[in-house]
């Protein structure tokens, strides 16, 4: 009864936000499921993954470098997907959860 509300064994509970960003949705979803499954094995309260809107970046450019000939155009697009996962646990527990193998094209950002 001496422990404060929101603490476990004297450690303060914090909200840790993990933001995952990638151009490859399959790799992003795999990392998300591995991250959430690892947290649930450790009995950590998890909220997410929250799917943020996909950014669609596009560039339209002329095909010919000199400007002569028919005016033909090339369109390039890149889609960037983002997922947000929140953990409610002591900060030292997050290190144990994030020791999963992360795909090389997935960017991870951790906010305490």
Automatic annotation (TrEMBL):
InterPro entries: Ribosomal_uS10, Ribosomal_uS10_CS, Ribosomal_uS10_dom, Ribosomal_uS10_dom_sf, Ribosomal_uS10_euk/arc. Transmembrane segments: none annotated. Gene3D superfamilies: Ribosomal protein S10 domain. One of its GO terms (molecular function) is structural constituent of ribosome. Keywords: Ribonucleoprotein, Ribosomal protein. GO terms for biological process: translation. GO terms for cellular component: small ribosomal subunit. SMART domains: Ribosomal_S10. It holds the Pfam family Ribosomal_S10. Belongs to the universal ribosomal protein uS10 family. This is Small ribosomal subunit protein uS10. It comes from Carpediemonas membranifera.
